[in-house]
Design a protein that fits this description.
single chain, mainly alpha, 0% strand, flat
């Protein structure tokens, strides 16, 4: 029970700290009072930079979708082939895929006899 209360309190304290910091950074009066002259600019990710420049151009990157699909398929193939669990499951499936617990052809005689 003590662990739960400690976790709740630490989550509450962290949320309060974040809220106070966000308030200070959004309020020009508070920034001035605390002598915060400059705010750090967020650094955009590569995707955000590309979107700011206008996104991907089909003319500029011709065939990029085909390369992406090809690479994706190659990665999937390597993950399947190099994974011991997946390869053993595939071999198990190949071995037992034609195995039936119930023989449906022989079952039809029992179904016909019950109806008639």
């Amino acid at each position: 029970m003590k662990k739960i209360f400690a976790e709740i309190f630490s989550s509450y304290a962290r949320a309060m700290k974040q809220a106070i910091l966000e308030y200070i950074l959004r309020s020009p009066e508070e920034r001035k009072r605390l002598h915060i002259v400059m705010l750090p600019r967020p650094i955009p990710t590569a995707t955000e930079k590309q979107l700011m420049r206008g996104g991907y151009s089909i003319a500029k990157y011709a065939g990029s979708h085909a390369r992406k699909v090809e690479t994706e398929n190659e990665i999937k193939l390597r993950l399947l082939n190099n994974n011991i669990v997946i390869s053993s499951l595939q071999s198990w499936f190949r071995e037992f895929r034609s195995f039936n617990l119930v023989e449906f052809r022989g079952l039809s005689q029992f179904i016909d006899s019950d109806n008639g």
